[in-house]
Design brief:
The complex is a heterotrimer of chains A (337), B (283) and C (320). Chain B has 283 residues and is mostly helical. Chain B contains 9 helices and no strands. The radius of gyration of chain B is 23 Å and the shape is elongated. In chain C, helix 4 (108-119) packs across helix 5. Helix content of chain C is 32%, strand content 24%. Classes of the chains: A mainly alpha (337), B mainly alpha (283), C alpha/beta (320).
Chain lengths: 337, 283, 320
């Protein structure tokens, strides 16, 4: 388990970098937070007043120490729009976002990996072409546009999907009792099947529109890595040893594909966390992304900065998880440390 | 090789080249729209009309009209300048700044390299779109700041690329010779190294353009930077989104399609350029 | 009948640039406990011969004529599934660059267990012990601990021993060793080759040693077949071929092989290149680079000359 600790220690520079950059963005850039906090009706005197109470008139190093102190206490400031501490707001909405992103990722992985493997074993076959087309398309379509297209097609034209108004039609159903905050999981725990059905129905379109974009890079790297593995010397050895095809594909080739796939996951997470904002906006999903967007519109400064910091920390942790996974798969990484 | 395979291969190669050609033509058309947009557009993109609100596409308004009765075709055409302008300036800026930082890091190594490298790592520690949001909000909500934010999140790619290329070339014989010849560091960099790494970086830039467009449009979609009534594809999609559930599809579809077309063309052109420069990287 | 019989085998490859006639009428046999060397430059068809025997040629390969039998089983008529059953159990192969030939992320013990599980019919609780026994058989010290190692933790020579242990785990009757010592240092080469020879002798295994190194073949093989451009040009017992090469190409190969007493300027490289195996070829594919060539060499069908029952050469004008 020593290598897990090593990885954990390895995230510290990233976390320090994240905190410093967030501080820099919020305190050292030319924008004037005091003016934001004072609101549009403020005069010069009240802005000065706020500047003083926020400590923004002090030298940057002093401000930085104060900022770190606040962070250590979980104090991200207070939201102008909700009047609540930003951290409370964010934590309240985080499960919804995680639910959406996890389903999107799950969808992407379940489709992309078999697709990439299949494409690699039958080059220029139907799946291979589909794989390539998908990569091209997903690189050219904005996520939010695809989300809207899906709404138009599956809600308006076909009537298959419910109206894209958030996580649950709260006129017909009441949210399940709170355990995890993710409606689908909570409904499952409570055994409330109608609510589970309804919340899944709301989840499907946004999860797929988000997942499609994670699907393409995963499928592409799976295909490439699988091709490389299949052409490698150790696969030749496995064939010369008369191992069954299934074992050669799954235990020998595929396990070697997991490492390159996990290395592309970092990029996929960066994309998912960013696009989450856009997709939540499209589908009225009440997660942290939608919260950030309304904060942007209301110039709710602390809320946006809190959101950015939380996403960055989440991203660092996700990358850590990927790293640990890669280490478990590949002994070479484990020994290099 | 069988005749069938031969035919298929030729067809494939030709098809790829043809796609690059099509992409180049579309980009030329988009460039025309960007330059002459206001003169080409059949209507004033800002003039509203209470009588033609949300009119379906017709001969009069080929793309229909929006909720305020403005002609969508005209707005899509006029928006080209702003959308491409934002992306081109952001990419150009990250190209220049990234090249400079990367060249310094690669050439001098040591502390310069470590500080620049750490800064780039820190940018990459954020989900990039989220970082861009934070930067725009902190700098102030304007188009210029969208460009700066897009520039910053693109920076690490150019910087790392330039650093790696400079690092490799620094040790080559002709650079060594130039240095021995008494040329200063800056001179060696500018005259001997940078010209050689420009072509691969240009390919990187053209592949990057599509992504820059998507980022800038994404930021305006959530209400950053561009203010209504300015025509811009992202914000137009956002404005049109409200009418989808009642079936008025044209208001979001056409600006969205313009985005897709532009991004797709840049991607194809980038692929074509890359194949031209380095056929080995073809996937 | 020999354990492994290759009879009149021809193989071609359909490539983008035309049909490559990689093997033409190749015949060779290996009896039980015998080590036969197949020697030639790269591109001469040695490896294609090996892969064809194993049934591992890629899809572009076509067997146009000939027969291969192993212990009386017709390998070319066997179904793919039957061939797979034979590989690893009845016939095994080891390769060059042993470090990449092993799965980098699987413990070597597990990789041997995989082969045993497939072919040995052992209950799964005995697999581990059998894998360790296989490692011990190739004299790997401390096999229990080595079984837990990954390939990157072992030296190249140790990896090749693992490969041998894996190949011999089910005591096959035929072993094909394709350049097994390329890339290993000289002392390790000798250790590996001694091991292969001892294993062949003790299990009466028929071994085909594929190498470009005539010196190596001369040291370890009972008989040697020399290949050139898809043809076998000479087959003879080792001493015979080293002392009295009959084919001009064999003589050139010998002249190009370093021996302990030779100095650098004694070494000759072989003039010319292998002919392009696409398109029309003369009956003797060596004629293009042969200094003894005469007009008739390019005209009539090329006969086999029998210098003694065990020494045959495919040349109209053999050296005497």
């Amino acid at each position: 388990m020593a290598f897990v600790w090593k990885r954990l220690l390895g995230t510290i520079p990233s976390l320090i970098g994240v905190v410093v950059l967030t501080f820099f963005i919020s305190h050292a850039l030319p924008g004037d937070p005091a003016a934001y906090f004072a609101g549009p009706a403020a005069n010069a005197a009240s802005i000065e007043n706020i500047r003083a109470t926020l400590g923004l008139d002090r030298p940057l190093p002093v401000q930085f120490v104060r900022y770190i102190g606040d962070l250590a206490q979980g104090n991200l400031g207070r939201s102008l729009t909700t009047g609540q501490p930003v951290l409370t707001d964010l934590l309240e909405r985080l499960p919804a976002s995680l639910e959406l992103s996890s389903f999107a990722l799950l969808f992407a992985i379940i489709i992309a990996i078999p697709m990439g493997v299949w494409a690699a074993t039958r080059i220029n076959g139907g799946v291979d072409h589909a794989c390539r087309a998908l990569v091209t398309v997903s690189a050219a379509f904005p996520t939010f546009f695809v989300g809207l297209l899906f709404v138009y097609i599956f809600y308006f034209l076909l009537g298959w999907a419910p109206q894209p108004l958030g996580r649950l039609n709260e006129i017909a159903y009441s949210p399940p009792p709170h355990f995890t905050g993710a409606y689908t999981i909570d409904a499952l725990i409570a055994g409330d099947w109608p609510v589970l059905r309804a919340s899944l129905a709301q989840l499907i379109l946004p999860a797929i529109s988000l997942g499609l974009f994670a699907l393409a890079p995963i499928a592409r790297i799976t295909r490439a890595a699988m091709l490389e593995a299949l052409g490698s010397d150790f696969i030749r050895t496995a064939r010369a040893s008369g191992l069954p095809v299934r074992k050669i594909l799954m235990t020998y080739a595929f396990r070697n594909v997991l490492l390159p796939v996990s290395s592309v996951l970092g990029m996929v997470f960066s994309f998912l966390l960013g696009s989450n904002v856009l997709i939540e906006q499209v589908f009225g999903w009440q997660g942290v992304g939608a919260y950030a967007v309304s904060a942007v519109i209301a110039s709710d400064y602390a809320a946006v900065q809190g959101f950015v910091l939380m996403m960055a920390v989440l991203y660092v942790l996700l990358n850590l998880a990927v790293d640990i996974f890669a280490t478990l798969v590949d002994p070479r990484v484990r020994f290099e440390g | 090789m069988s005749v069938v395979t031969l035919a298929r291969n030729t067809g494939y190669a030709f098809g790829e080249n043809r796609l690059t050609l099509v992409a180049a033509i579309i980009l030329a058309l988009l460039a025309l729209c960007a330059i002459f947009g206001p003169y080409i557009a059949p209507y004033d993109p800002l003039v509203t009309s209470a009588t033609t609100k949300l009119a379906r596409p017709s001969a009069l308004h080929p793309f229909g009209t929006d909720a305020l009765g403005r002609d969508i075709l005209s707005r899509v055409i006029v928006a080209t300048r702003l959308d491409l302008g934002m992306a081109v300036s952001a990419v150009a800026l990250s190209f220049v700044v990234g090249l400079a930082l990367g060249a310094l890091a690669g050439y001098f190594g040591g502390w310069t390299d470590r500080i620049i490298g750490r800064a780039m790592d820190t940018i990459m520690a954020f989900p990039l779109f989220v970082l861009a949001m934070g930067i725009v909000v902190a700098l102030g909500n304007s188009v210029a700041n969208i460009i700066i934010a897009t520039m910053i999140i693109n920076l690490p790619f150019y910087c790392r690329f330039a650093r790696a290329e400079v690092n490799v070339r620094r040790e080559l014989g002709y650079i060594e010779a130039a240095r021995m010849g008494g040329n200063g560091a800056l001179r060696v960099l500018l005259n001997h190294i940078v010209p050689n790494i420009l072509p691969p970086m240009m390919v990187q830039a053209s592949l990057n353009m599509g992504w820059a467009i998507l980022n800038a449009a994404g930021l305006s979609f959530i209400g950053l930077g561009v203010r209504p009534p300015t025509p811009e594809w992202g914000i137009m999609v956002s404005e049109g989104a409200s009418y989808i559930i009642s079936g008025e599809w044209w208001a979001f579809m056409f600006p969205g399609a313009a985005l897709v077309l532009a991004v797709f063309s840049f991607n194809m052109l980038g692929d074509g350029l890359r194949d031209l420069l380095d056929p080995r990287k073809r996937v | 009948m020999a354990q492994l019989e290759i009879d009149n085998l021809s193989v071609e490859f359909r490539t983008r640039h035309g049909v490559v006639r990689a093997l033409d009428s190749v015949s060779l046999s290996v009896t039980r406990g015998e080590i036969v060397g197949v020697v030639g430059e790269s591109g001469s068809g040695k490896s294609v011969t090996a892969y064809t025997v194993m049934g591992l040629n890629d899809e572009a390969a076509r067997i146009t004529q000939g027969n291969i039998t192993m212990g009386g089983i017709d390998l070319l008529a066997a179904r793919p599934e039957a061939m797979r059953e034979l590989r690893g159990r009845e016939m095994a192969m080891i390769f060059q660059s042993p470090r990449t030939a092993l799965n980098p992320i699987r413990k070597i013990g597990k990789q041997i267990e995989d082969v045993l599980q497939e072919h040995a019919g052992l209950p799964s609780r005995d697999l581990k012990k059998a894998a360790i026994a296989a490692l011990a058989r190739v004299r790997i010290p401390d096999p229990e601990r080595r079984a837990e190692a990954y390939p990157f933790e072992l030296s190249g020579g140790m990896c090749q021993r693992v490969m041998i242990a894996m190949a011999l785990a089910c005591t096959p009757s035929v072993l094909i060793a394709d350049e097994p010592t390329t890339g290993l240092d000289v002392t390790t080469q000798a250790v590996i080759m001694d091991l292969i020879r001892d294993m062949s002798r003790s299990t009466r295994m028929s071994t085909l040693l594929i190498t470009h190194d005539l010196g190596l073949a001369g040291e370890y093989c009972d008989r040697i077949a020399v290949m050139h451009a898809g043809h076998i040009v000479e087959v003879a017992p080792t001493e015979e071929i080293l002392d009295h090469p009959a084919h001009p190409y064999t003589r050139q190969l010998l002249a190009a092989t370093p021996v302990p007493e030779s100095r650098l300027d004694d070494l000759n490289s072989i003039p010319g290149h292998l002919p392009d195996l696409r398109g029309a070829l003369p009956p003797c594919r060596f004629s293009g680079r042969c200094e003894r060539r005469r007009p008739i060499c390019d005209e009539a069908e090329l006969p086999w000359r029998e210098l003694s029952p065990a020494h045959v050469v495919r040349c109209r004008f053999p050296l005497s």
